[in-house]
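Blackboard transcription, Thursday session:
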Amino acid sequence: MGNITIRMLAKELNLSTAAISKALRDSHDISASTKERVLALAAKLNYVPNPYAGSLRRRKSKTIAVVIPEVANSFFSIALNGIEAVAIEKGYHTLIYLTHEKLAREKAILQDLQSGRVDGVIVSITLETTSGEHFRALASGQVPLVFFDRVCEEIETAKIITDDFTSGYNATSHLIECGCKNPALLSVSNSLSIISRRLEGYRQALADQGIKENPANIILCGNDPNENYALIQQVLKRKKRPDGIVATIENLTTEIYQVSEKLGLSIPQDLKVVCFSNLATVAILNPSLTTITQPAYEMGKTAATILFKALEKKSFLLENENIVIPSSLVVRHSTVREL
Amino acid sequence: MGNITIRMLAKELNLSTAAISKALRDSHDISASTKERVLALAAKLNYVPNPYAGSLRRRKSKTIAVVIPEVANSFFSIALNGIEAVAIEKGYHTLIYLTHEKLAREKAILQDLQSGRVDGVIVSITLETTSGEHFRALASGQVPLVFFDRVCEEIETAKIITDDFTSGYNATSHLIECGCKNPALLSVSNSLSIISRRLEGYRQALADQGIKENPANIILCGNDPNENYALIQQVLKRKKRPDGIVATIENLTTEIYQVSEKLGLSIPQDLKVVCFSNLATVAILNPSLTTITQPAYEMGKTAATILFKALEKKSFLLENENIVIPSSLVVRHSTVREL
DNA sequence: ACTATTTACTTAACCGGTTAAGTAAATAAA
DNA sequence: TTTATTTACTTAACCGGTTAAGTAAATAGT
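(Written on the board underneath:)
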């Protein structure tokens, strides 16, 4: 650990450690000339205060934790980018924890975070998370908690989300307007609120356009690409196969394209596709992909901003509110042949 | 911060704090029955030790820092994934710092990390980094430092790299074998060692295949997508335009494809393209992209493993070594029409 | 000239654990 | 039975800052 301490500065300058500490924090208690001497020596010796000593005394760590399912995912990595930008600006440090969609990991991490390691936590929950019990201790304690995107509705705190119902509605309506009679929806969870809302939007769009819902067209995918490939293939081999797909998460894109290619279905003629995706490369896919693009960076940034607002107040109370940042439908060639 | 302390447990059980501390760490000093009582109460009260108190005393933080240019980038996000996996397994915490390719940020971060905040650091340097001075204090101190991918050669420590020369060589040779007479290389830095090596590989391949090097075919791109687009367009509008491109970084892919489309150049007939890329979607691009795929996860994992090897020893000396994990050329339709 | 206030510090407790050193009681060895 | 050792703790210093409370000297006020 860092070797040069406030005590050494004190000895060198014949001052008390208190004087050094105050000089470094620019206290009124210390004369200008002394401050100068202290700053000069600190700079010369390249003194960097031990953060944990201060954290212990002040009971503040100037650190936040970000708990997300994956980082090798464009949505989460962009959101993390937004969070980190705010944290750095505020002089905070960012601990990153990946749950890999495992509830057990999420619980273990949240348990650890009760230690005072961080001043605040930003979470996007796993696909397995159905109860919010493990968030309760944190939220009811003095550690403010903000959810983004995949939120835990039963916990009363700030939640940064996008307009999932509308997005699901728009994606589905768009497919129908493009001529789909039998659009399917690829889901990944029956519990995640964002997925439920996208599904509700899908249903409402069907209803509004007078298409009868077919339960077989709501397909629950999983985490394994191979299994998803097999599942999608099975769906697209049906006699009355879907002529459109709304994929509620990004990582289903590759499988949809690959199965279509394998089955000789051409997109968008035989199958129209809309994905929830933030990939930069969607525009150069074959064909380019119509997407619901989520405001990932903005969501991360907003989550962090709201969190710091709570941290800067003495009361750590975060209002139970949903902050909605809209997504946008970007139409490309996977739904429309000519643009 | 966490409210329940070792002192409260001590009072409750009529023991000293030392006894509690030892009981929790399963010391031989404490009787089995007492340990049981302590563990039971700790569990009941959901006691989580304050990490900073321990860090201060033991001069170990059980935390590492990862300093990378960007996280919204498939290579770095996958590498971070690998690092985090090892850290979690070892019971360590991971602080993430993004430099956004700014040397000033990198310096400020490295300065802070001398504080004892972390036990070790993993870095991939910025495009602006030419000198390693700001790494010296850390490396010469007691904080072990490991570089991965974008390494700082002048610092004597462990460096996890891929076979950049060979990759550049293979990418270029592949283009030539596919019929290119005039392959260009898109660079992003004149100082970064990995880019230099890729360039050397490119040159060697030209030499071996008897193609005279054309300096105008070595193109220095930057960080701004729009500028890169303009630059690539300018190159592909030349009378004697390149018939092949080796792109040394992933984020040039979109611009290459878009310029080609705009200029009516079809890939691979008019222009063959190989990119250094870890994007999952390369297989479904239009056309699918031939890549040099770096072992991003393995590199992150190895960097972390080497770091922890040093952390687990009493001596923090990291050998000055290059650990090379090979990349692979994956041939797809951007260089070969029929596979 | 004498008290009140301000200036510029110092002292010491504190944050919450860890650990070297000490100790009383129980057990083992001689 | 006496001494040596082990067991199961306690005491207190320590990590490196922060900060409430105290103090001596200088300055201001009357």
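Lecturer's comment: Chain B has a mean pLDDT of 95.
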